[in-house]
Write a structure and sequence with these properties.
The structure holds 2 protein chains of 2 kinds.
Chain A (H helix, E strand, L loop, with lengths): L9 E2 L2 E2 L11 E5 L7 E7 L2 E11 L13 E8 L14 H17 L9 E10 L4 H15 L8 E9 L2 E4 L3 H6 L2 E8 L4 E11 L1 H35 L1
Parallel strand pairs in A: 6-7
Antiparallel strand pairs in A: 1-2, 3-4, 4-5, 5-7, 8-9, 8-10, 10-11
Helix pairs in contact in A: 1-2, 2-4
Chain B lengths: L10 H12 L15 E5 L7 E7 L2 E12 L10 E7 L15 H17 L8 E3 L3 E13 L4 H14 L2 E8 L2 E11 L9 E8 L2 E4 L3 H5 L3 E7 L4 E6 L6 H25 L10
Parallel strand pairs in B: 4-6
Antiparallel strand pairs in B: 1-2, 2-3, 3-6, 5-6, 7-8, 9-10, 9-11, 11-12
Classes of the chains: A alpha+beta, B alpha+beta.
Amino acid sequence: MAKQSPIPLLTDGKRVDGRLPEEHRPVTMQVGVLPNANGSALVGYGNTIVLAAVYGPREPIPRYITVPDKAVVRVRYHMAPFSTDDRKNPAPTRREIEISKVVKEALETVVFLEQYPKSTIDVFLEVLQADGSTRVTSITAASLALADAGIPMKDLVVGVSVGKVNDTVIVDLNKLEDNYGDGDLPIAIAYRKNWVLLMQLDGVWKPSEVKRGLELAFKAAENIYRNMREALKGRYMAVVQQ
Amino acid sequence: MSSYPFEIIPSLRRDTLRRLISEGKRPDDRQLISMRDLTIRVGVVKTADGSALVNLGNTKVIAGIKFELGKPFEDTPNEGNLIVNLETPPLAAPTFEPGPPDENAIEIARIIDRALRHSNYIPLKDLVIIPGKSVYSMWVDIYVLNHDGNLIDSSMLAAVSAIANAQVPRAIIDGDNVKLDKTSKIPLNINPQNMPLTVTYYKIDKYLIVDPTLEEEVMSDGRFTVASDGENIVALQKGEGYFTPEEIDSMMNNTLNIVKDLKVKVLEMVKTPVGSLMF
């Protein structure tokens, strides 16, 4: 983290891409993009683009992972080899395994698992283009894809990343800020429930900075949450018209 | 909600535990926010460059340090390499199976890795032999020997204790050739005031407890880890369940106090190596 950035990350209160510290990149959403999947979504946070597909509820393979009274959520977060500057080896890394696990734990908390005993809900997340904040973009995409698959949930889940540059707390890190910033704090929120579903922290933070980060994340989540509802409405309307 | 779901607790037992916890009590007479008895023995493995055995209640974790010659990463030419690995061998619990580290083991190792890296506890700059060319690779291998809950905190304790006990083999530079002399070692110059520790909170109904037994852990609804050096937060990890911003705030503040006290105890226990392996 002590690495020197090739260009200053914060000048006169503006970030490398001209954003203010608490300004989120434009968020794009498209729901129902993959015909084969039960639910799917393509989400962009600026130049970070993630494709999510949900298959299920379906019969688990292998069978032994079945739980008698509820569904099992499985998540695979993966980065495409061409999504990064240097080619990323497609074999799953320890980082990807960890992210898959925390994303799974975020999603399974909001899904009504007891409605689908003995089945699995499989969520596949492919990062197609990476420019920071890939895991939180993935969560937003996953939540939309689950909703698109018609799986009942307690709330939609919004992912927002928070970071730190020269003691300034910033929202929605891009690649440079992720690589050269002083810390990163990915968060996923069930907005209406006021629940934090994913939270990790990297770097050295004062407790007050973490608190501020959470506040900024909730603020950013409000907007994204509204966009998600609109995107889903658009999708449902299209189905109705068909 | 355990990561190893095949641990089964009768629902009668669950109800009893829930009731106890709602009254602020636990089956072993602890308070909600207190830990089990902790003992740490360092220097227990002669073949390791540093080692520690942690007993936290019935949870037993051993950690060993090994130094090897390595090449620095391109972006850190002036730092040694730190690699943290955690294994859950099948001898430690009926639910553990042989095989490479699973997602649970990888998650714990990565939390510990982040906490160590950001706390500045290990002087990675001292582990350089020839800048940009040759450095020490410091392996922190953590082995769970008996799983009775709270693997994250006990593994972190084992890691920092083994590191406190670490001795670095001397590097012999002969032209372009570098060799490690295992017969001559110097203590690793750690920064004790920066020692990071984790406190993992488990949620049962709306109550937060620390240092659960396996039974409490399996029936919990949520998990949240805070790593701190007593001053700053150096890692966070939310596991299962959900937490409100208010809960997160109180867990962070609680952790600073717990870590400050716990660190004093740990530093005392890692002072004298015991030289042999004893449970």
